[in-house]
Amino acid sequence: EAGVAQSPRYKIIEKRQSVAFWCNPISGHATLYWYQQILGQGPKLLIQFQNNGVVDDSQLPKDRFSAERLKGVDSTLKIQPAKLEDSAVYLCASSLSPEQYFGPGTRLTVT
Amino acid sequence: AQSVTQLDSQVPVFEEAPVELRCNYSSSVSVYLFWYVQYPNQGLQLLLKYLSGSTLVKGINGFEAEFNKSQTSFHLRKPSVHISDTAEYFCAVSAGDYKLSFGAGTTVTVRA
Hints:
The complex is a heterodimer.
Chain A: E1 5-7, E2 10-13, E3 19-24, E4 31-37, E5 44-50, E6 53-56, E7 65-68, E8 75-79, E9 88-95, E10 100-102, E11 106-110
Chain B: E1 3-6, E2 10-14, E3 19-21, E4 23-26, E5 32-38, E6 44-50, E7 56-58, E8 64-68, E9 73-78, E10 87-94, E11 101-102, E12 106-111
Parallel strand pairs in B: 2-12
Antiparallel strand pairs in B: 1-4, 3-9, 5-6, 5-10, 7-8, 8-9, 10-11, 10-12
């Protein structure tokens, strides 16, 4: 069974630029999550999708972050414009049950 | 809402020695508990989980954890560590909505 795929693995941008991350969950997993992991901290949930609907985006900074999950499969997380404090690893996870499966993450550096 | 406290930020340990990583949680409802491991530049890998039933849970790579409801704890143990166990370990909790709340992590460094 293929795991959660994410791309790119690494991205370096300047502040005020925009960036997008892509996630392909495990086949059949209805629930998809995006997390932000700042260096030295545990992951923090940004947004949760159930199929292609948003369940919880209360922690998503909506003035600069957006996310979508078209057709209930792949998902894209976008940051526009980026700030220095957005430097972090962005993790995607999917699940059918309480257990979540994580992708390798995208390490974003904002200079 | 649920929260997790990992009581040790760093744990140095010698190879073949035992290790215990401490985790306490806070919740007003029944919870699911997890331990994840993160190797450098990788995502999170599930070590073990407590959903219900036996309070002693065995996971991959020789790890085990015990759920203690009265002390709201879920400590992780391994009787004999290897160099390859050097990693970051995260305790996490969720409730009926399945959203995970993570602790700050414990860095385990295994020395020869």
